[in-house]
Amino acid sequence: MSELFEKLACCNYWEGGFPLTGVSRRRYAERIQPFMGNRLTKVLMGQRRCGKSFILRQIMAGLVENGVPWSNIFYLDMERMELSDIVEHRQLHDLIGEYRKRLQVKGKVYLFLDEIQEISGWERLVNAYSQDSRQEYEIILTGSNAHLLSTELGTLLTGRYVPFEIFPFSFEEFVAAKHLKKDKTALLDYLQSGGLPELIHLQSEEARRHYVMALRDAILLNDVVRRHKVKDPDLLERLFRFLCDNAGSLVSVRNIVATLQSKGQRTNFETVSTYLSHLCQAMLVHECNRYDIRGKDVLAGNRKYYLNDLAYRQYLSSGFESALPQRIENLVYLHYRSQGYAVHVGTMRNLEVDFVVEKDNRRAYHQVCYLLADPSVIDREFRSLERLDDNYPKSIISLDDVSLGERNGIAHHLLWNLL
User: Fold this and answer.
1) Nearest alpha-carbon partner for 193 in 306, 283, 310, 284
2) Of 87, 113, 134, 340, which is least surrounded by CB within 10 A?
3) Confidence (pLDDT) at 26
4) Structure pTM?
């Protein structure tokens, strides 16, 4: 245990120093801050390499700036090779005990546990420490598997934890990281390269492609194949590639199966359905169901899948076309999801609305298009929303240079202004 404790120095600041905090992710800090200062466990969920660790370090830095000693902050980064020997919760329990003994910690202890799903039985430890009646702990943890976190925490910590979904850089964070002006040129750059934080530092297209492919492989292997004991990794990779090619298109499990079978892939409905669920749980893709606007019910059958970052479309798609309209739609989806909205595809009789977004009993409808290039396109996009007979806000979102203003109460938003 003594040797393992010494290795903790790789990610803690008990003897001085200050963590690299990277680009400020203010929107997450503002969302998390109201839940600090209590025994609620804060859970940051997001795909690997989306920036969760930097957010943890920003929270840690904020605590220190407000008077919390570094000695009261315990940080465990399970992606550090030095700590790979920690495999189950009893080891972590002993390590925390050793930390308290060595540093003679007084007062509240803040436990920052990064990629907690790598430790077997972690949920028992979190439950025990969050309810410790003798010592006050505040726990902030991250993980890369939504199902694992929600299932295990939901079992033991019902009502005693609060989840936060973390996404790669938004457009605003992207321009801040690259020191760019927030304009259409920067937006086109973002639509092509996406918001994975590490891509900011890679200049060549070859290096970017290799990084995205390596990240895909790491997520599929660690968060899907190993965790779910997937029997056909090749099918899993082909399925993800299909979703990269068809992001934003209405699909069903049956037509995905038919498409894969037509290309010589042996599979069936149950397998594809299961693998789709795994990809969503690893937060590589997001499922967007159809919503009956009049009946106010989520519909079964066809649905859309959106990529968690636009870099997957750029570097993993089988096609060669730019597919700018699909990228724009994917980006608008991510924008509203990252703002905490529930997002659905709206449908009513023969009408389809790209997005119905809801939050805090508020609803809005959005049509997304590339350009309002001529009167026929303008009429088509506005008319679809004009057919909705309720009073919720309605808007068209496009990449045009100039807004057309409003028509019959429907606003036209320029994409970079919306973001």
Assistant:
1) 310
2) 134
3) 92
4) 0.94
Query: Given a cut of 80, is residue 233 above it in pLDDT?
Result: yes
Nearest to 257 by CA among 245, 266, 244: 266
User: Are 11 and 110 within one domain?
Assistant: yes
Q: What is the dihedral of CA 138, 52, 304, 252, to 10 degrees?
A: -80
296 pLDDT band (50/70/90 cuts)?
Answer: confident
Q: Are residues 216 and 328 in the same domain?
A: yes
CB burial string 124-142: b at 16+ within 10 A, e below: ebbbebbeeeeeebbbbbb
- The answer to whether residues 94 and 193 belong to one domain is no
The residue with tokens 């680009």 is 23
Q: Which two tokens stand for residue 306?
A: 């959106």
> Which strand (E) or helix (H) includes residue 413?
strand 410-414
DSSP 159: T
Instruction: Write the pLDDT tens digit of every residue in 122-177.
Output: 999 999 999 999 999 999 999 998 866 667 777 777 778 999 999 999 999 999 99
Instruction: For the beta carbon of residue 369, count every other beta carbon within 10 angstroms.
Output: 19
Tokens of 363: 């609803």
| E strand map for 40-133 | 41-45, 73-77, 109-114
Give the residue among 196, 239, 205 at the shortest CA–CA distance from 48. 196
Task: Tell me the C-alpha distance between 17 and 352, whole Å.
Answer: 55
Binning pLDDT at 50, 70 and 90, where does residue 319 land?
A: low
Q: What is the per-residue pLDDT for 297?
A: 80
Answer yes or no: are the C-beta atoms of 194 and 310 closer than 8 Å: yes
For residue 309, what are the domain limits? 171-418
